[in-house]
Each structure stands twice: as C-alpha cells, then as structure tokens.
Amino acid sequence: MPKIIEPEWVSIPAGTFLMGSEEGQENELPVHCVWVDNFAITKYPVTNLEYVRFVEATGHRQPGGWKESRFHPPESAGCGCQLVRRCCLLIIV
C-alpha cells in the first residue's frame, strides 16, 4: 500500500497585484490591476514523479501532452497549474 503524504500548505492573503506587460504579446497587454481572493497553495511544487504516482494510485486520466519530453525528468516540477490542483491534496510516495 502506498504511503500518503499531506503536503505542507501556505496561506496566501487576498489582495491585488499588477498583471500583464507593456511590451509583451497581445494577450498580455496592458499592465492592469487584478484582485485575487485568499487561497492556499502547497509550499513545494509537485514533481513529475509524484504526479505519476498519483495517476497510478487513483486511476486519474493523464492529461494531453503528458508524453512530451518536458515531463520526463521525474524530479522536475513540470506539472501545469490545472494538474497540480488535481493532485496536490494527495501525494503518493
């Protein structure tokens, strides 16, 4: 039976931040103020190996593009935000 580890969480308070660019791509323009509600995030990123173990333990469907080379180094944190949200509650080692 795999060992389940609850990751360490960090609380992020609600507030505003500047998002965008004055010199970026069209979808990044312009710099503007954005409000974000408070949320919690894991202190350390989910590694590819941890995500693979999560998929194997839960039967969760692998996302499209998972076979891309950027996901191959097991120690790297290559999971996108959507993937991390799905597996950060359950890390299998």
Could you explain the architecture of this structure?
This protein has two helices and six strands, in the order βββββααβ. By secondary structure, it is α+β, with helices and mostly antiparallel strands. The chain has one domain. The strands form three sheets. A two-stranded antiparallel sheet has the order 1-6. Strands 2-5 form a two-stranded antiparallel sheet. A two-stranded antiparallel sheet has the order 3-4.
Helix/strand layout:
Elements: E1 4-5, E2 9-12, E3 15-19, E4 32-36, E5 39-42, H1 48-58, H2 81-87, E6 91-92
Antiparallel strand pairs: 1-6, 2-5, 3-4
Give the helix/strand class.
alpha+beta
Distance between the first and last residues' Cα: 10 Å
According to DSSP, the number of beta strands is: 6
Largest sheet: 2 strands, antiparallel
How many individual helices? 2
Helix content: 10-25%
The succession of helices and strands, N to C, reads EEEEEHHE
Number of domains: 1
Describe this structure in a few short sentences.
With 93 residues, the chain is of the alpha+beta class.
What tags apply to this protein structure?
two-stranded antiparallel sheet; 19% helix; 93 residues; alpha+beta; disordered C terminus
